[in-house]
Amino acid sequence: MSAPEEEWRRLDGRTVLVTAMVLAGFAAGAGLPALLGLAGGMPLWKALGWVLAGAALLVGAGTGADLVRWQRTRYRIGPERAELHTGLVLVKRRSLARDRIRSVDLTANVLLRVLGLVKVRIGTGEHIVGGGSTLELDAVSRAEGERLRLELLARSAPREAAAHPDGALAALDPAWIRYAPVSFVAPLLGGAAAGAVMQVSEWFGARAEVIEWVGDRFRDTPLVWVIVTLAAAALVAGVIGAVGLWIEMWWNYRLDREPGGTLRVRRGLFTARSISIEERRLRGVDLVEPLGVRLFGAARLDAVATGLVKDQQDNHADINVLLPVVPRVLADEVAAQVLRESASPTREALLTPHPRTARGRRLRWALSAALLPATVLALLGTLLTPVLLWIATAWVAVGVPVAVLLALDAYRALGHGIAGDYLVTRSGTVRRSTVALQRTGVIGWTVRRSVFQRRAGLITLTATTAAGAGAYGVHDAAEGEGLAFASEAVPGLLEPFLDRG
Amino acid sequence: MAGENTVRLRPPNNRLNERAVNWWRTQVLLTAAVPALVLSVLGAFIEPARTWLLVPAGVIAVAGLACTAFFPAWWYRVHRWEVTDEAVYVRTGALWQEWRIAPMSRIQTVDTVRGPLEQAFRLATVTVTTASAKGAVRIEGLDHEVAAALAESLTRITRATPGDAT
Predict the structure, then answer these.
(1) To bridge B39 with a disulfide, which of A267, A408, A486, B57 should be the other Cys (CB 3.0-4.6 Å)?
(2) pLDDT, tens digit, for every residue of A280-331?
C-alpha cells in the first residue's frame, strides 16, 4: 500500500475538454433537425447562422461552467477519510470514513477512454436519502483511478482460501453471443428501430413518402404477407441491435477475485466499466433465466449484495450482474466459485417442490387472465358485430393453451430448500429466478396468507434481507412444511412463535 | 390442512387498544364519505346527470357503512403484537393475513408516529425498521402511552443487543 498522502488533488483537466466535446456533439444532434425546421421559413444562410449561434452559446456556457467546476473541485484521500469539496455557488463538502468504503467503481465512455480518463464512484453502500453516501470523481486519469481503487479497497484479509484462490473466475467466451438474440431485448429494439425510421423521416418531412415507398414494394402482395415481412424485418433489425448491444456491454468481460476478498467485474467495448463487490457484502447469488434464454439451457448470474446503489444517470448499467447469459452448467460453476462453495446451492436437485394446490392456483390465474378479455369481447360481439366474436374465438384458441403452458411451467419453477449455509428459493416463468441467500443474511420473516391460500393450505414466506431486492419470497409453500423450513433456515428466529401440534 | 405434525404460527400475545376500533371506523367512514358527498353535491347541481351521480353516491355510502360496521371489529380481533427479548412479532390483516417478525439484533430505527386522527383517539403507531428496504414492522393503534413506553424499551433492548444490523 502506498503511503496515504495528505495533499489535495484536482480532477484531471482534460475533463473540461470532454464536456466541451459532449456538448458539441449534442449541439450537432439537436442542431440538424432545428436547421431543417428553420430552413423552411427563412433562407438557408440565415437559419445556419441562428443554429450556429445557439450551438456556440450552448457549448461556450457549458464548457465555462465545467471549467469553474473543475477549478473548484478538490479531493483528498487521508488516512481516515476520503474527502471531496465541490460546488459552483455553494461549496459542498463531502467526506467518507475510509473503513466504511465498500465500493470503488470505474466507468469510462468512449470519449473518456480516448483521453485516458475514468470516472470514479466511491461508495459506502448505505442507503442515505440525497445520495450522501457516494463520492463521484468526474474524471481522473486512468492510472489515478486504478491507484484509488487499489488503495481504498486494499485490506488485510487473511483468508484460508486454498480451494478458491484469487484470480480469474470467468472470462468472455465469444460463443456466448449466441444467446444475445433470444433475450427479450431483440423485439424491443426491433420496435424501436421501426419507430426511429418514422421519427427521422418526419424530421425531413418525408414520413408520407416512406410509408408510400413501403406500400409500393408490396403492391401485389396480400396483407398477411406484408405484415409478416414487416414483422420479420423489424425482428432482424432487433436481433442485429441485440447482438450489437451485447458486444458493447460484454466485450472484454472478466470476473476476478482480487486479494483482500473483492470480486471485480470488468466489461464493455466502448464504455469500459469496472465494478468491485466486496465479498463481505455478498449475501448470495441470483441465477436468472428469462424464458427465451431458458429454452436454450442458459442462465445469467446476479450478485445479491448489500449497498449496490444504482447509478442515477446510468440505469441500465446492471451493476449487480456477475456473469452474462451463459450455459446453465457454467453459471452454476461460477456461482459455486463466487460463493466459495464446492457445489452451487442453486442446483436443481436440492429443491422441495410445492403442493399441487399451488398448481391449481396458477391454472386459475392463467385461465381467468386469458378468458376475461375473451368474455368482454364476446359480450360486445353479441351486442355489436360478429367480427368481435371471431376475434374472441381466435383469442381463446391461442391464449388458453399459452396460459395453461405458462401456468404449468410456473408451478414447475416453484421450489425451496436449504443448501448448506444457503436458503434457496426459485419461482417465476417468464423470468425464472433461483436465489441462494446466506442464512445469516436473513434479517426477518414475513408470512402471508390470503383467504384463498388458507383454503388451499398454502402460505407465502418472504425472507427480508439488507441485500439485493430487500426481500425474497417462497410462494405458495405448504403451511406446515414452509414454516418448518423457515424455522430451520434461520435458527431461533421463528421458533418461539410456532405452535407444533 | 390437518396433519399429524402440523406447524402453525401462534397468535402474538397482545391486543391493540380498544379505541383502535373507533379510530378505524372513523377512517373508513371518512374515506367513503368524501366521494359520496362530492357525488351527491354534484348530483344536486347537475340536473341532467342526476341519477348517474346519485346512484353511485348511494352505493358508496351503503358500502362504506357496511365496511364500517363489519371490518374494524374483525381487524381488532385479528391484529395482535408481541415484543420478546429476541424479536418483534406482529399479526395484521383480515382477508390477507400477514405475520411479520424482525429480530432485535437487526433493528435499526424505532419511530413513533401520531397522525391528527390518532391524536384525537389518543393512539399512536410504532414503526420498527431493519436494514432491509422491505422489512419494516408497523404496530398501529396502540395507546399512546403504551407506544411511548414500547418505543423506549425497544430502543433500550436494541442498544443492548449486539449485531451490525445487516
Answers:
(1) B57
(2) 889 999 999 999 899 999 999 999 988 665 544 444 457 788 999 999 999 9
Q: Which residue of chain B comes nearest to A483, CA vs CA? A: B7
Band (pLDDT 50/70/90 cuts) for residue A360 is: very high
Q: Among A470, A479, A484, whose Cβ lies nearest the Cβ of B1?
A: A479
Burial of A213 (0-12, 13-18, 19+ CB in 10 A): exposed
Please give the Cα distance from B86 to B104 (Å, whole number).
5
What is the CB-side half-sphere exposure of residue A61 using CA atoms within 13 A? Answer: 7
**pLDDT tens readout for residues B31-56:** 999 999 999 999 888 888 888 889 99
Q: What integer pLDDT is reported at residue A285 of this predicted model? A: 93
Instruction: Tell me: do A122 and A22 sit in the same domain.
Output: yes
Using CA coordinates, name the residue in chain A closest to B92.
A448
Size of interface A-B (CB pairs under 8 A): 120
Q: Are A437 and A299 in contact (CB under 8 A)?
A: no
What's A315's DSSP letter?
G
Give the per-residue pLDDT at B30.
Answer: 93
Strands A298-305 and A442-450: unpaired
Tell me what the mean pLDDT of segment A205-220 comes to: 77
**If you measure CA to CA, which chain A residue comes closest to B135?**
A464
Nine cell digits for residue A108 = 469510462
Peptide bond into A139 cis (omega under 30): yes
On whether both A149 and A22 belong to a single domain, the answer is yes
Parallel/antiparallel/unpaired status of strands B7-9 and A498-500: antiparallel
The mean pLDDT value of chain B amounts to: 88
For A463, name the nearest residue in chain B, comparing CA atoms only. B135
Taking the Cβ of residue B51 and every Cβ of chain A, the question of whether any pair is shorter than 8 Å is answered with: no
d(CA A285, CA B140): 35
Q: In this complex, which of A462, A493, A499 lies closest to B8 when CB atoms are compared?
A: A499
Mutate: best of B74, B83, B86, B101, partner A, most A CBs <10 A: B101
Same domain for A105 and A29: yes
Does one domain contain both B68 and B47? Answer: yes
Q: Are residues A280 and A261 in contact, defined by beta-carbon separation less than 8 angstroms?
A: yes
The whole-angstrom separation of Cα A494 and Cα A471 is: 17
Chain A CB within 8 Å of residue B56 CB: no
The label of the residue with cell 405484415 reads A227
Which domain covers residue A59, as residue numbers?
14-153
Q: Are strands B80-83 and A498-500 parallel, antiparallel or unpaired?
A: unpaired
A127-136, B121-130, B131-140: the lowest-pLDDT one: A127-136
The domain tally of chain A equals: 3
Q: Determine the distance in angstroms separating the CA of A126 from the nearest CA of chain B, rounded to an integer.
A: 10
Looking at chain B, the whole-number percentage of residues with pLDDT higher than 70 is 94
Is position A466 within any domain?
Answer: no
Mean pLDDT confidence for A18-38: 85
- Domain assignment present for residue B2? The answer is no
Residues sharing a CB contact under 8 Å with residue A225, sequence separation 6 or more, in sequence order? A218
Q: Which three cell numbers stand for residue A423?
A: 436458503
Q: How confident is the model at residue A130 (pLDDT cuts 50, 70, 90)?
A: very low
Containing domain of residue B52, as a range? 14-77
Q: What is the pLDDT of residues B66-76, one digit of tens each?
A: 999 999 999 99
> Do B99 and B127 lie in a common domain?
yes
- A325: exposed, middle or buried (Cβ count in 10 Å: 0-12, 13-18, 19+): buried
Is B90 in the same domain as B152? yes
Of all residues in chain A, the percent with pLDDT exceeding 70 is 92
